[in-house]
ER transporter 6TM N-terminal domain-containing protein
Amino acid sequence: MQQETPSQGQPQDAAAAKSNEEKATFSLPKSLQWIPANWTWPKIRTAIRCALAAWLSAILFVIPAVERHMGQASYIILITAFHSPPSDPFIAVLEREVIICSIVAATSAWCLLGIFLANLTRTHIDYTITLAQAVTGRYIEARPTLVLAAFVFVWSLALLYIRARKGPGPYFMGTLLSCICLDITITTAVFFPFPHYALCKNILIPLGLHSCIALLVSLFVFPQTISAHFTSRLQGVLGPLIKHVELHRMLKGISVNSEGFAHRVEDIRKSTAAAETAIVPLAVASRLLPSDLIYSRFSPMDFKAFPDIVHRMAVRANGMDAYFSLIRTTSKSILEPASTHPGAHDNAEAELQEDMPSTSTASTTTSTLRPRSHQASRVFNLSSRKSRRLVMLTRSKSRPSRAARKTEGTVGMYDDRHYTSHENTISGDSTDGYTQEATHLLLVGCDTLLELNQQALQTALDWLSTARKGRFAFWRSTKQKNDDWRATLDRLKRLRARLEVEIAEFRKTSRMSVVDPYKEALAAGSQKGSDQPSHRHLFHCYVYQYQLLRFSNQSARMLDMIISMEQGRSAPRIWTPVKRLFVWNSRNLLDTDNVDDENPDTVEGLEPNDMEVLGTAKRRDPDALPPTNQFEWVMSKAYSFLKSFGSGDALFALKAAILTILMCLPAFLKETAPFAYRNRSEWAIAMSQLTLARFRGDTTFGFTSRVLSTIGGGLIGTCIWYISSPTDEGNPYGLVAVLAVCFPFFFYFRLYAPVASVTNTVLFLTIMMVVGYSYQDRVLALPGSPGRGITVAWHRLVLVICGVTAAFLFSFLPPAMTIRSYQRRLLATTSSELGAAYCSIISLASTPSEKRSKEVIASLIAVRSKLNRSAVLKQNTLYEFSLRGKWPAKRYAKIMDLQLALSYSLSYLLSVFEQMDKAWTQSLLARTRFLDPSFQGDVLAVISMITTALRTGEPLPQITPCPLVNRFYSQSSGDMDEENDFRLPKRVTTETLQDEQYLMFSVGMSTAFDIIRGVDELMVAAKEIVGEQYPISGLHKRMAAVKVSAWRTGDNV
């Protein structure tokens, strides 16, 4: 008993300790974890700066004289304080305010023109009429009202077209305020029997005061330069990369089959995703670097190269992570058992399996080392087993449940059978027990280089945080400054030298540890190949090592940039814009918080002719020959211009303009105009304009979020009003005091809360409208005032419900577009762009061009950005109601994942072509059949079919050129003629495996295989969405007979 007591007590003690630890550790709910995550001084001071600007606006608002000067829409100064806070550097705030004020000023000018022309049609003009007399509606006339209605229609069409065309960015706030300006000005102007030009000042004056306050506060209160903003964004990329490298080092010694290894790999992928996510804000921040005004040692343009460096590092980090996907695939069986459901499919499967030899279920990427010496010496022999990933895809998706089989047929069976027969024909025996040893050798050999990469990234991060310190330390002596500068420079040089030595050492010796197990098999006359590990493990390690080398080169490049800046910039000076104030490009004005109204037929960030790579390969007009004279050229341009009015953006804008006119009817009719004015109908009009979106799901989401946020904002605003003013008279001092307390918390939520942008915007808009109208009623005695406190909140809620309900119902009228169709068309567009990038990369392999290479990289970045934004947008498909059935979200997600993986593989292949010698590149092109017109014709035909099927929704043929991997095998697995083999070794030796060019060649072969396999998988996934047509029965029997015959005779198929 004495021996049993400790054994029983230890688990109890451990459980008690764990329980006490859980009690002692307090963790916030997941929905509130954003609060401590953003609780840093740089973010807190930004919130304080925004709160101060809003509080100054509130002070101006409560001063009676200023409020009277601003007019009956004085509350706009409070709304704009939240809609356009000075949260960015001064130059960025200046740019945004200029854009907003320009759009609103143009709207005001349009309204003035409309008022002037409408006045020309009046039969009765009286300048003595007051506002109280005019809003009775007795002076409304038909002809002026029609003129004003036409102006509302045309300008609403223009504003909403701009919003739809330009997409997310600073235009949203400009169009929002312009819609409010248009609605208030025009619906009020119809009442007056004279041209009341002063109405436009009701919006312009509060907006102008807000812009002045925002600019002054951003300039003098915790000012931030573009360079500082950029470096903080750059640190946001380096932090996850440091974590990424650290986690890679922590994998050493952990079993690849353990849960700890899987969790650690998942953390690695999260850190990579965090780095890639942070690159988009970094690119936006770098746009204004040439316009920065700063006193510093370093020029803003000195940092211009860093975005390219860290983006390449993020791509390389993703490539390193691919190793874990490879060993995960090869460490377990991916062939699923045959379906138990009876049917033709099962009978056909049985026919195939009866004539095929049994094979191991292990998956591999390359052939195993055979006992035959000529097999062991093959320079590269991709095994078919890696393609079983596609077999898993087709089998898992082509065998639905009983319920699903009643309504949906199977697809991809031809691909499945073709793959299976090919697998059984050329696959060989292999084992996967070497995965753990290969991973251990790999991580041990790479550990020192990973450590130095971690140190380099950490050093760069620390340097960025101190790069601008000491600029104003005038009390320090020159000697102290020089000593610190030399110490920093020496530390950077020592680290750079160590990194360079380790990279060279890694290339010569460290990476060779993964080659050691193969030396015996490759010895002359060795007959022990069957006991040696598969080539796939070596090639997996090659992929990791290649990506690590490229990652290390970028780390060294970053240190070189820092050292160069330190050596070339010894003393601080004033840096001013050298070209122009704003280097302005609408394609770069992307707001990652807003992804509404994107065009599914274009990829933002690409030039119109970026993908025309073959010169003569251009789009043609199928209905007309090219113009032969000047008249035909002019008419063709006119036709293209008129045709543009039938685009999705134009039709949406036309639909929204019609809705605006319908919502304005109560304000235009003489009988209902007084009622509309008293109940502030412009709130409902503006809400309907801004709720209606191109996609029905977004409109429904806007309906829900606007109603809920209006309720919440109304309650909060009511509480603020009654706390600050216990009586209905209003207390300006109490209101300013309460707002001073609330604003810092409001802006912390406004800037950093992970909620939808629409919800965030409408919430604070409602709060400020309730407070603003309640106090405004105390100072300005306006007819039809909505009241104070809860009365204002109730009026606001009713009108918001009216506006969003009108938009919701109107969204069902044609032309109506759903996010479901948007996703399909978008995936068609990105498929086409990936195909164009694929052609460009093959062309660059034959005819290198640095400029063209950068364009291809930019196109792949744009495609990935488009896909990532669409992943956010498709969340609103939950709000699209359909009686036809559920949307196949997983199938679309599968295509999106495949396209993202394909874009990364294309980036890796381009990198290999850029690094490899010309002779090895030509050998790689020949081995992969990338220069075979017949094979390339099949690849491009498959991409074209996928694009067309996704765009039109038409089913794909049951029999296509897929699987392409089979023909890829027929060349890469076979012997090649001496005269066509360039300098590629005919036999693999130890020296060959140690050659860095062979490493890149192997990575290129693996990447090429991934691309071709990805196209095959994309075809199967597309068939899952659109279905199949043109079936041919009995083909599988012929295919089985041919494959079995080939297997029995030992011939390649």
Q: What stands out?
A: The chain has two domains: 35-221+646-694+696-810, 229-470+485-597+817-1053.
